[in-house]
UniProtKB/TrEMBL annotation:
Residues 1-131, 176-271 form the UspA domain. InterPro entries: Rossmann-like_a/b/a_fold (IPR014729), Universal_stress_UspA (IPR006015), UspA (IPR006016). It comes from the Bacteria. It comes from Thioalkalivibrio denitrificans. Belongs to the universal stress protein A family. Gene3D superfamilies: HUPs. This is Universal stress protein UspA.
Length: 274
């Protein structure tokens, strides 16, 4: 999945923080990068936006610096709707993952303005890796060391679970977190037992001790996931999302969207491909 990553390059001030995190992805198997800059359609009043050569030269400079760091690098400059063009380029170039920067808590405001990141989160037909680029975020180390899977055991989480199990061969031990109401309401005991049985089935697919399981029984799921990630030094959170266009879920602030907003670390959002 991570061998070939398409990187969304916007040349904003946060781009340098996103670029600085690329080396962290080597442990996940990343060897090849496709850098894509999209000239947003509808803003032709700024003459520079029509100058493909200008942006191509800037991409080429970035690509050369990354080749010196032993990445295989391709580039593309295109014009159109940003999220749609990134999805098209990823599909045509067969990139396994799209990488974009996330500005943390501002993402909720951006959602109402049609943010590129949230458009990608709604529409992506392949995993979307969000890297924190807010200046207040302290990056935890130079390599990804501990993945955390957030799952409710539903079919929508199957893709995220598969990605997590694959990554355990590269970085472990991992963590599995599922948040329920069993500590607050006795009527949720059956739900806790279902989750425990489901996680036990996942454990049978990997070596013993490959991950630890935590089942917080209270609190808001996204907040509990972020808390556990912080306390247990997990630097990659993996979560599933339903469908290819979960507009309603995102507007209602579901767990996946809230994790993307609040995690302040790498988040891999894996779509339900069923």
């Amino acid at each position: 999945m991570f061998e070939h990553i398409l990187v969304a390059v916007d040349f904003s001030p946060s781009w340098e923080r996103l670029k600085a995190q690329l080396d962290r992805l080597r442990v996940l198997g990343c060897r090849r990068l496709t850098l894509v800059h999209v000239i947003a359609s509808g803003y032709t009043q700024a003459p520079e936006l029509t100058h493909r050569d200008h942006y191509q030269q800037r991409l080429d400079q970035v690509a050369e610096s990354l080749r010196e760091r032993d990445f295989e690098v391709e580039t593309e400059v295109c014009v159109g709707l940003v999220a749609a063009e990134l999805r098209r380029a990823a599909r045509e170039r067969e990139a396994g993952v799209i990488l974009a920067g996330s500005h943390g808590h501002r993402i909720l405001r951006d959602l109402l303005l049609g943010s590129t990141v949230l458009d990608l989160a709604r529409q992506a037909d392949r995993p979307l890796l969000l890297a924190p680029t807010d200046e207040s975020v302290v990056l935890p180390g130079t390599r990804v060391c501990r993945p955390l899977l957030a799952t409710d055991g539903s079919a929508a989480a199957a893709g995220a679970e598969a990605a997590f199990l694959d990554l355990l061969s590269l970085c472990q031990p991992g963590l599995v977190v599922s948040v329920g109401r069993w500590a607050e309401h006795s009527g949720h005991d059956d739900e806790q037992a279902r989750i425990q049985a489901h996680v036990a089935e996942l454990a049978e697919r990997v070596p013993a001790g490959a991950f630890e399981t935590l089942l917080p029984g209270k609190g808001r799921p996204a907040e509990e996931i972020a808390r556990v990630a912080e306390e247990r030094a997990a630097d990659l959170i993996i979560v599933g999302k339903r469908g290819h266009n979960p507009m309603v879920d995102l507007l209602l602030g579901n767990t996946a969207e809230a994790v993307c907003r609040n995690a302040r670390r790498l988040v891999l959002l894996v779509p339900d491909m069923t």
